[in-house]
Protein backbone atom coordinates (compact mmCIF):
# COMPACT_ATOMS: atom_id res chain seq x y z
CA UNK A 1 0.00 0.00 0.00
CA UNK A 2 1.19 3.47 -0.88
CA UNK A 3 1.27 5.79 2.11
CA UNK A 4 -0.26 9.11 1.01
CA UNK A 5 -0.39 12.44 2.78
CA UNK A 6 -2.62 15.35 1.78
CA UNK A 7 -2.32 19.13 1.83
CA UNK A 8 -5.67 20.90 1.79
CA UNK A 9 -9.12 19.89 3.00
CA UNK A 10 -11.43 21.32 0.34
CA UNK A 11 -13.81 19.48 -1.98
CA UNK A 12 -11.12 18.47 -4.47
CA UNK A 13 -9.01 16.87 -1.73
CA UNK A 14 -12.09 15.01 -0.53
CA UNK A 15 -12.73 13.69 -4.04
CA UNK A 16 -9.08 12.68 -4.36
CA UNK A 17 -9.12 10.82 -1.03
CA UNK A 18 -12.30 8.99 -2.05
CA UNK A 19 -10.58 7.96 -5.29
CA UNK A 20 -7.61 6.66 -3.30
CA UNK A 21 -9.97 4.47 -1.28
CA UNK A 22 -11.76 3.18 -4.38
CA UNK A 23 -8.46 2.20 -6.00
CA UNK A 24 -7.47 -0.04 -3.10
CA UNK A 25 -3.82 0.90 -3.66
CA UNK A 26 -3.30 3.57 -0.98
CA UNK A 27 -3.64 4.28 2.71
CA UNK A 28 -4.21 7.81 4.01
CA UNK A 29 -1.23 8.21 6.32
CA UNK A 30 -1.40 11.93 7.10
CA UNK A 31 -3.56 15.02 6.68
CA UNK A 32 -2.20 18.55 6.84
CA UNK A 33 -4.21 21.71 7.42
CA UNK A 34 -3.27 25.05 8.94
CA UNK A 35 -6.05 24.62 11.52
CA UNK A 36 -6.16 21.73 13.98
CA UNK A 37 -9.94 21.38 14.05
CA UNK A 38 -10.09 21.27 10.24
CA UNK A 39 -7.27 18.73 10.07
CA UNK A 40 -8.86 16.56 12.77
CA UNK A 41 -12.29 16.66 11.13
CA UNK A 42 -10.93 15.71 7.71
CA UNK A 43 -8.78 12.95 9.18
CA UNK A 44 -11.71 11.51 11.14
CA UNK A 45 -14.05 11.61 8.14
CA UNK A 46 -11.54 9.74 5.99
CA UNK A 47 -9.96 7.41 8.54
CA UNK A 48 -6.54 9.03 8.22
CA UNK A 49 -3.88 7.76 10.57
CA UNK A 50 -2.69 11.19 11.78
CA UNK A 51 -3.39 14.90 11.32
CA UNK A 52 -0.93 17.80 11.37
CA UNK A 53 -0.83 21.58 11.42
CA UNK A 54 2.91 21.59 10.71
CA UNK A 55 3.73 20.49 7.15
CA UNK A 56 7.38 19.76 7.87
CA UNK A 57 6.32 17.61 10.78
CA UNK A 58 4.07 15.52 8.52
CA UNK A 59 6.90 15.06 6.03
CA UNK A 60 9.30 13.88 8.72
CA UNK A 61 6.97 11.81 10.91
CA UNK A 62 4.22 10.25 8.77
CA UNK A 63 6.48 7.86 6.80
CA UNK A 64 4.95 8.99 3.49
CA UNK A 65 5.55 7.55 0.05
CA UNK A 66 3.77 10.48 -1.63
CA UNK A 67 1.92 13.68 -0.81
CA UNK A 68 -1.01 15.25 -2.65
CA UNK A 69 -0.75 19.06 -2.77
CA UNK A 70 -4.04 20.92 -3.26
CA UNK A 71 -3.23 24.22 -1.58
CA UNK A 72 -3.57 27.61 -3.33
CA UNK A 73 -1.48 27.66 -6.52
CA UNK A 74 1.23 29.98 -5.23
CA UNK A 75 2.02 27.56 -2.37
CA UNK A 76 2.54 24.48 -4.55
CA UNK A 77 6.19 25.16 -5.32
CA UNK A 78 7.55 25.45 -1.77
CA UNK A 79 5.47 22.49 -0.57
CA UNK A 80 6.60 20.36 -3.51
CA UNK A 81 10.26 21.23 -3.00
CA UNK A 82 10.04 20.36 0.69
CA UNK A 83 8.57 16.94 -0.11
CA UNK A 84 11.22 16.23 -2.75
CA UNK A 85 13.94 17.10 -0.23
CA UNK A 86 12.51 14.34 1.99
CA UNK A 87 12.47 11.86 -0.94
CA UNK A 88 8.68 11.89 -1.00
CA UNK A 89 6.90 11.74 -4.36
CA UNK A 90 4.43 14.50 -5.16
CA UNK A 91 1.00 14.69 -6.76
CA UNK A 92 0.33 18.37 -7.41
CA UNK A 93 -3.05 19.78 -8.41
CA UNK A 94 -3.04 21.64 -11.69
CA UNK A 95 -1.64 24.05 -12.47
CA UNK A 96 1.31 22.52 -10.66
CA UNK A 97 3.51 25.62 -10.60
CA UNK A 98 3.12 29.35 -11.19
CA UNK A 99 5.75 29.80 -13.92
CA UNK A 100 8.57 28.19 -15.86
CA UNK A 101 11.21 29.16 -13.28
CA UNK A 102 9.46 27.07 -10.64
CA UNK A 103 9.08 24.14 -13.05
CA UNK A 104 12.80 24.25 -13.90
CA UNK A 105 13.71 24.31 -10.21
CA UNK A 106 11.47 21.33 -9.47
CA UNK A 107 12.98 19.37 -12.35
CA UNK A 108 16.47 20.13 -11.05
CA UNK A 109 15.45 18.89 -7.59
CA UNK A 110 13.98 15.72 -9.09
CA UNK A 111 17.28 15.06 -10.85
CA UNK A 112 18.96 15.12 -7.42
CA UNK A 113 16.35 12.70 -6.04
CA UNK A 114 15.90 10.12 -8.82
CA UNK A 115 13.54 7.89 -6.84
CA UNK A 116 11.02 10.72 -6.40
CA UNK A 117 8.14 10.97 -8.87
CA UNK A 118 6.19 14.10 -9.80
CA UNK A 119 2.64 13.81 -11.09
CA UNK A 120 0.38 16.69 -12.08
CA UNK A 121 -3.23 15.84 -11.21
CA UNK A 122 -4.73 16.44 -14.65
CA UNK A 123 -7.51 13.95 -14.16
CA UNK A 124 -9.29 14.22 -17.51
CA UNK A 125 -6.29 13.10 -19.62
CA UNK A 126 -6.14 9.82 -17.69
CA UNK A 127 -9.77 8.85 -18.34
CA UNK A 128 -11.12 6.21 -20.75
CA UNK A 129 -12.94 9.01 -22.59
CA UNK A 130 -9.62 10.71 -23.30
CA UNK A 131 -8.37 7.43 -24.75
CA UNK A 132 -11.51 7.19 -26.89
CA UNK A 133 -11.00 10.78 -28.05
CA UNK A 134 -7.36 10.16 -28.95
CA UNK A 135 -8.29 7.06 -30.94
CA UNK A 136 -11.02 8.95 -32.82
CA UNK A 137 -8.59 11.68 -33.86
CA UNK A 138 -6.19 9.11 -35.28
CA UNK A 139 -8.96 8.14 -37.70
CA UNK A 140 -9.43 11.65 -39.09
CA UNK A 141 -7.76 12.31 -42.45
CA UNK A 142 -6.59 15.72 -41.24
CA UNK A 143 -7.04 18.16 -38.38
CA UNK A 144 -8.30 21.64 -39.24
CA UNK A 145 -8.63 23.09 -35.76
CA UNK A 146 -10.71 22.99 -32.62
CA UNK A 147 -12.91 25.11 -30.38
CA UNK A 148 -12.55 24.11 -26.74
CA UNK A 149 -14.83 25.55 -24.05
CA UNK A 150 -14.92 25.27 -20.26
CA UNK A 151 -16.87 27.98 -18.49
CA UNK A 152 -18.53 27.60 -15.07
CA UNK A 153 -19.80 30.34 -12.79
CA UNK A 154 -17.92 30.30 -9.50
CA UNK A 155 -19.84 30.93 -6.30
CA UNK A 156 -16.71 32.77 -5.13
CA UNK A 157 -17.41 35.43 -7.74
CA UNK A 158 -20.35 36.50 -5.59
CA UNK A 159 -17.74 37.53 -3.00
CA UNK A 160 -15.84 39.54 -5.61
CA UNK A 161 -19.02 41.42 -6.46
CA UNK A 162 -19.28 42.63 -2.85
CA UNK A 163 -15.64 43.69 -2.65
CA UNK A 164 -13.82 40.60 -1.34
CA UNK A 165 -10.77 38.88 -2.88
CA UNK A 166 -11.16 35.11 -2.58
CA UNK A 167 -8.06 33.00 -3.27
CA UNK A 168 -9.33 31.69 -6.62
CA UNK A 169 -9.58 35.27 -7.92
CA UNK A 170 -6.31 36.52 -6.46
CA UNK A 171 -3.10 37.18 -8.37
CA UNK A 172 -1.31 36.91 -5.01
CA UNK A 173 -2.17 33.20 -5.06
CA UNK A 174 -1.35 32.78 -8.79
CA UNK A 175 -5.02 32.31 -9.54
CA UNK A 176 -7.68 33.40 -12.03
CA UNK A 177 -9.67 31.90 -14.87
CA UNK A 178 -6.69 30.73 -16.95
CA UNK A 179 -5.07 28.94 -14.03
CA UNK A 180 -8.24 27.45 -12.60
CA UNK A 181 -10.39 26.44 -15.59
CA UNK A 182 -8.32 27.33 -18.65
CA UNK A 183 -5.71 24.77 -17.64
CA UNK A 184 -8.19 21.96 -18.48
CA UNK A 185 -8.63 22.71 -22.20
CA UNK A 186 -4.98 23.79 -22.48
CA UNK A 187 -3.98 20.38 -21.08
CA UNK A 188 -6.30 18.71 -23.57
CA UNK A 189 -4.78 20.62 -26.50
CA UNK A 190 -1.21 19.83 -25.42
CA UNK A 191 -1.92 16.15 -24.78
CA UNK A 192 -3.60 15.77 -28.19
CA UNK A 193 -1.53 18.07 -30.40
CA UNK A 194 1.69 18.93 -28.57
CA UNK A 195 3.26 22.35 -28.07
CA UNK A 196 1.80 25.18 -30.18
CA UNK A 197 4.05 27.41 -32.25
CA UNK A 198 2.49 30.62 -30.94
CA UNK A 199 -0.07 31.57 -28.32
CA UNK A 200 -2.07 34.68 -27.49
CA UNK A 201 -4.38 35.40 -24.56
CA UNK A 202 -7.20 37.95 -24.40
CA UNK A 203 -8.30 38.11 -20.75
CA UNK A 204 -11.27 39.89 -19.20
CA UNK A 205 -10.01 41.34 -15.92
CA UNK A 206 -12.23 41.72 -12.86
CA UNK A 207 -12.09 43.98 -9.81
CA UNK A 208 -9.42 41.87 -8.07
CA UNK A 209 -7.02 42.36 -10.98
CA UNK A 210 -7.24 38.69 -11.93
CA UNK A 211 -8.75 37.33 -15.13
CA UNK A 212 -12.38 36.31 -14.66
CA UNK A 213 -12.72 34.87 -18.15
CA UNK A 214 -10.76 34.86 -21.36
CA UNK A 215 -10.08 33.65 -24.87
CA UNK A 216 -6.82 31.97 -25.83
CA UNK A 217 -5.60 31.18 -29.33
CA UNK A 218 -3.11 28.36 -29.83
CA UNK A 219 -1.49 28.36 -33.27
CA UNK A 220 -0.22 25.05 -34.66
CA UNK A 221 1.20 24.22 -38.08
CA UNK A 222 -1.82 24.26 -40.38
CA UNK A 223 -4.54 25.01 -37.82
CA UNK A 224 -5.55 27.05 -34.79
CA UNK A 225 -7.30 26.09 -31.56
CA UNK A 226 -9.49 28.64 -29.81
CA UNK A 227 -9.97 28.11 -26.09
CA UNK A 228 -12.78 29.86 -24.22
CA UNK A 229 -13.03 29.61 -20.45
CA UNK A 230 -14.21 31.56 -17.45
CA UNK A 231 -15.47 31.65 -13.88
CA UNK A 232 -17.88 34.60 -14.13
CA UNK A 233 -20.51 33.02 -16.39
CA UNK A 234 -21.74 29.65 -17.61
CA UNK A 235 -21.42 28.06 -21.03
CA UNK A 236 -23.31 25.00 -22.23
CA UNK A 237 -21.63 24.91 -25.64
CA UNK A 238 -19.90 21.67 -26.66
CA UNK A 239 -16.25 21.57 -27.61
CA UNK A 240 -15.39 20.43 -31.14
CA UNK A 241 -12.37 19.18 -33.07
CA UNK A 242 -12.62 19.53 -36.84
CA UNK A 243 -11.48 17.09 -39.50
CA UNK A 244 -12.66 17.57 -43.09
CA UNK A 245 -16.32 16.59 -43.14
CA UNK A 246 -16.00 14.87 -39.77
CA UNK A 247 -16.33 16.51 -36.34
CA UNK A 248 -15.49 15.06 -32.95
CA UNK A 249 -17.56 16.61 -30.15
CA UNK A 250 -17.02 16.76 -26.39
CA UNK A 251 -19.59 17.77 -23.83
CA UNK A 252 -16.91 19.77 -22.00
CA UNK A 253 -13.19 20.27 -22.43
CA UNK A 254 -12.88 20.00 -18.66
CA UNK A 255 -15.27 17.25 -17.60
CA UNK A 256 -14.89 15.07 -20.72
CA UNK A 257 -17.86 12.86 -19.78
CA UNK A 258 -19.26 12.51 -23.31
CA UNK A 259 -17.45 12.02 -26.63
CA UNK A 260 -19.08 11.57 -30.03
CA UNK A 261 -18.14 11.67 -33.72
CA UNK A 262 -20.22 12.95 -36.61
CA UNK A 263 -19.21 11.53 -39.99
CA UNK A 264 -19.43 13.10 -43.46
CA UNK A 265 -23.05 12.03 -43.82
CA UNK A 266 -24.04 13.53 -40.48
CA UNK A 267 -24.33 10.20 -38.66
CA UNK A 268 -23.39 10.39 -34.98
CA UNK A 269 -21.45 7.67 -33.17
CA UNK A 270 -21.30 7.81 -29.39
CA UNK A 271 -17.74 7.04 -28.30
CA UNK A 272 -18.33 7.64 -24.59
CA UNK A 273 -17.02 5.08 -22.14
CA UNK A 274 -18.98 3.98 -19.04
CA UNK A 275 -19.34 6.61 -16.32
CA UNK A 276 -16.68 6.60 -13.63
CA UNK A 277 -17.40 6.02 -9.95
CA UNK A 278 -15.03 8.92 -9.26
CA UNK A 279 -13.44 11.12 -11.98
CA UNK A 280 -10.08 10.93 -10.22
CA UNK A 281 -9.98 7.13 -10.07
CA UNK A 282 -8.10 6.63 -13.39
CA UNK A 283 -5.33 9.07 -12.48
CA UNK A 284 -4.71 7.68 -8.98
CA UNK A 285 -4.64 4.18 -10.48
CA UNK A 286 -2.10 5.33 -13.06
CA UNK A 287 0.03 7.00 -10.40
CA UNK A 288 -0.06 3.88 -8.21
CA UNK A 289 1.10 1.72 -11.10
CA UNK A 290 4.20 3.91 -11.59
CA UNK A 291 4.93 4.23 -7.88
CA UNK A 292 4.65 0.47 -7.34
CA UNK A 293 6.66 -0.57 -10.41
CA UNK A 294 8.84 2.36 -11.54
CA UNK A 295 11.21 0.13 -13.55
CA UNK A 296 8.47 -1.33 -15.76
CA UNK A 297 9.12 -0.14 -19.35
CA UNK A 298 5.50 0.82 -20.02
CA UNK A 299 5.30 2.71 -16.74
CA UNK A 300 8.52 4.55 -17.56
CA UNK A 301 7.19 5.54 -20.99
CA UNK A 302 3.89 6.76 -19.55
CA UNK A 303 5.65 8.71 -16.81
CA UNK A 304 7.93 10.44 -19.33
CA UNK A 305 4.90 11.38 -21.42
CA UNK A 306 3.05 12.84 -18.43
CA UNK A 307 6.14 14.83 -17.43
CA UNK A 308 6.39 16.23 -20.94
CA UNK A 309 2.73 17.23 -20.91
CA UNK A 310 3.17 18.96 -17.55
CA UNK A 311 6.28 20.82 -18.71
CA UNK A 312 4.62 21.96 -21.93
CA UNK A 313 1.39 23.04 -20.22
CA UNK A 314 3.44 25.06 -17.74
CA UNK A 315 5.22 26.80 -20.63
CA UNK A 316 1.97 27.46 -22.53
CA UNK A 317 0.21 28.91 -19.48
CA UNK A 318 3.18 31.16 -18.78
CA UNK A 319 3.44 32.29 -22.41
CA UNK A 320 -0.28 33.06 -22.49
CA UNK A 321 0.07 35.26 -19.41
CA UNK A 322 3.10 37.01 -20.87
CA UNK A 323 1.16 37.73 -24.07
CA UNK A 324 -1.49 39.49 -21.96
CA UNK A 325 0.95 41.14 -19.52
CA UNK A 326 -0.75 39.23 -16.71
CA UNK A 327 1.83 38.75 -13.97
CA UNK A 328 1.84 37.16 -10.53
CA UNK A 329 4.00 38.03 -7.51
CA UNK A 330 5.58 34.57 -8.00
CA UNK A 331 6.99 35.85 -11.31
CA UNK A 332 9.20 38.51 -9.68
CA UNK A 333 12.41 36.53 -10.21
CA UNK A 334 11.41 35.06 -13.56
Notable features of this structure?
single chain, 334 residues, alpha/beta, Rossmann fold, Dihydrodipicolinate Reductase, domain 2, 2 domains, 8-stranded mixed beta sheet, 6-stranded parallel beta sheet, 10 helices, 23% strand, globular, Gfo/Idh/MocA family protein, NAD(P)-bd_dom_sf
For the record, the CATH architecture of the largest domain stands as 3-Layer(aba) Sandwich
Give the topology string: H per helix, E per strand. EHEHEHEHEHEHEHHEEEEEEEHH
Q: What is the CATH first-level class name of the largest domain?
A: Alpha Beta
Runs in which pLDDT lies below 50 for 5 or more consecutive residues are none
Outline of this structure?
The protein is α/β, with parallel strands linked by helices. It is built from 10 helices and 14 strands. It is globular.
Amino acid sequence: MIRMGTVGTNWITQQFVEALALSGRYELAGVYSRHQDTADAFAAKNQAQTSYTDYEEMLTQADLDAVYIASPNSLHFDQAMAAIAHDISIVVEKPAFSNRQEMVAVQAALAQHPDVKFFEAARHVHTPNFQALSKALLGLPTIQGAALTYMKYSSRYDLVLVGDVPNVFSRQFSAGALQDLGVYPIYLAVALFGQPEHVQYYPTLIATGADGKGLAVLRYVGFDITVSFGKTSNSYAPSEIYGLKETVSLDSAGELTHVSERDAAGNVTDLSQPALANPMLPEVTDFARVLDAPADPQNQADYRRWLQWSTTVNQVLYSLRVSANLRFPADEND
